[in-house]
């Protein structure tokens, strides 16, 4: 298996993990909304039904992981924002130059984000920051974002080696 194939497999698996988390977030949101609806009905009979305890805490932590997990896959498959409207009229050499420069810029930004997130992980861990309701340590979620940023940078660099000019 080539490095490119292994990286593509890793990025695809990482995006699928993000998709599963996103599906869990949707399910938890639906359950929480159903709880609020059931509570509105139960109040008619002097009853109560609570929402999902700690819903906001869990969703806040998991959305950050799930959303960023999909960036590398989008980069690898050219599903990111581009200036194709303008570049479709440019000569092939200009299109390739913009593709190379933008890939290098994205890789640099993603690596800078990974670095800053790594520093943030240590700071949040040292400060013992926890979610308000569930009491989960926040720092355990940040390394997932670091991995996503590193994979995003690698996906951008892998796109430099493509022969199709994109």
UniProtKB/TrEMBL annotation:
Family: Belongs to the TRAP transporter small permease family.
Superkingdom of this protein's organism: Bacteria
Protein location: Cell inner membrane; Cell membrane
Keyword Cell membrane: yes
Pfam families in alphabetical order: DctQ
Domain Tripartite ATP-independent periplasmic transporters DctQ component: 52-161
Main function: Part of the tripartite ATP-independent periplasmic (TRAP) transport system.
Entry's Gene Ontology cellular component terms: plasma membrane
Quaternary context: The complex comprises the extracytoplasmic solute receptor protein and the two transmembrane proteins.
Membrane topology: Multi-pass membrane protein
GO molecular function: transmembrane transporter activity
Name assigned to this protein: TRAP transporter small permease protein
InterPro entries cross-referenced by the UniProt entry: DctQ (IPR055348)
Keywords, comma-separated and alphabetical: Cell inner membrane, Cell membrane, Membrane, Transmembrane, Transmembrane helix, Transport
Transmembrane segments: 58-76, 97-118, 138-160
């Amino acid at each position: 298996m080539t490095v490119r194939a292994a990286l593509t497999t890793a990025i695809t698996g990482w995006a699928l993990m993000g998709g599963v988390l996103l599906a869990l977030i949707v399910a938890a949101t639906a359950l929480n909304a159903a709880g609020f609806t059931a509570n509105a009905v139960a109040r008619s009979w002097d009853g109560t039904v609570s929402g999902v305890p700690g819903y906001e805490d869990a969703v806040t932590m998991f959305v950050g992981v799930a959303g960023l997990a999909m960036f590398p896959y989008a980069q690898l498959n050219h599903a990111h924002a581009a200036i194709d409207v303008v570049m479709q009229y440019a000569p092939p050499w200009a299109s390739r130059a913009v593709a190379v420069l933008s890939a290098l810029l994205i890789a640099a930004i993603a690596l800078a984000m990974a670095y800053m997130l790594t520093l943030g992980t240590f700071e949040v861990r040292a400060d013992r920051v926890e979610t308000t309701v569930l009491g989960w340590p926040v720092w355990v979620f940040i390394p997932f974002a670091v991995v996503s940023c590193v994979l995003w940078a690698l996906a951008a660099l892998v796109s430099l080696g493509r022969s199709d000019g994109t």
